[in-house]
Design brief:
The complex is a heterodimer.
Chain A: E1 5-7, E2 10-14, E3 19-24, E4 31-37, E5 43-50, E6 55-58, E7 61-66, E8 71-76, E9 85-92, E10 97-99, E11 103-108
Parallel strand pairs in A: 2-11
Antiparallel strand pairs in A: 1-3, 3-8, 4-5, 4-9, 6-7, 7-8, 9-10, 9-11
Chain B: E1 5-7, E2 10-13, E3 19-24, E4 31-38, E5 42-50, E6 53-57, E7 64-68, E8 74-78, E9 87-94, H1 97-102, E10 106-107, E11 111-115
Parallel strand pairs in B: 2-11
Antiparallel strand pairs in B: 1-3, 3-8, 4-5, 4-9, 5-6, 7-8, 9-10, 9-11
Classes of the chains: A mainly beta, B mainly beta.
Chain lengths: 109, 116
């Protein structure tokens, strides 16, 4: 069953702008992860935030987690055309990761 | 170090046939996960194997089955294929059961199954 729901479903921005996508989930989690998928290929892990963390940074990525609202956000700063991809949040609850439907990001030059 | 490898890359079958997809995890990883990614439905969890045993199963009918071999590679079998089984099937691995439940999954490039 799917746990996370990403919002928006699609996002189109220009190079240099920031991209923000959100994820909401329903049950308690151990951690929340964000993955990236380029055009129907395999997923690549971007960042993991644990349930006792509120914010985490990795390069141009910033992830926040609000367990009281059961939500997370992924911010990509200074977007590049190469960031064009689908982004998925995934929640871990002890058995397997459950993924949302993803946000499709298009970054135009 | 080789990543997760899946075969075949593409597979075309007709309704009612059987499909077999294969996955080799990263060396040293004991857990293998299978996901289905159909158009517009996101990733749906199918199966999780660890140390040769099925640990968890998603909400799929019994015609979706699999196994994990002693070398930790895995096979996904889909019997009595239906049109809606057309999808990208992704395999992922992790160093162990707990790592998979709490940590990062490493994905292969997927096998695209088309059912005509």
């Amino acid at each position: 069953s799917q746990q996370g729901e990403e919002d928006p479903q699609a996002l189109s921005i220009q190079e240099g702008e920031n991209a923000t996508m959100n994820c909401s989930y329903k049950t308690s989690i151990n951690n929340l992860q964000w993955y990236r998928q380029n055009s129907g290929r395999g997923l690549v892990h971007l960042i993991l935030i644990r349930s006792n963390e509120r914010e985490k940074h990795s390069g141009r990525l910033r992830v926040t987690l609000d367990t009281s609202k059961k939500s997370s956000s992924l911010l990509i700063t200074a977007s590049r055309a190469a960031d064009t991809a689908s982004y998925f949040c995934a929640t871990g609850s002890g058995y397997a990761l459950n993924f949302g439907k993803g946000t499709s990001l298009l970054v135009t030059p | 170090e080789a990543g997760v490898t899946q075969s075949p890359t593409h597979l075309i079958k007709t309704r009612g046939q059987q499909a077999t997809l294969r996955c080799s995890p990263i060396s040293g990883h004991t857990s293998v996960y299978w996901y289905q990614q159909a158009l517009g439905l996101g990733l749906q969890f199918l199966l999780w194997y660890d140390e040769g045993e099925e640990r968890n199963r998603g909400n799929f009918p019994p015609r979706f089955s699999g196994r994990q071999f002693p070398n930790y590679s895995s096979e996904l079998n889909v019997n009595a294929l239906e049109l809606e089984d057309s999808a990208l099937y992704l395999c992922a691995s992790s160093p162990g059961a707990l790592a998979g439940a709490t940590g990062e999954l490493f994905f292969g490039e997927g096998s695209r199954l088309t059912v005509l």
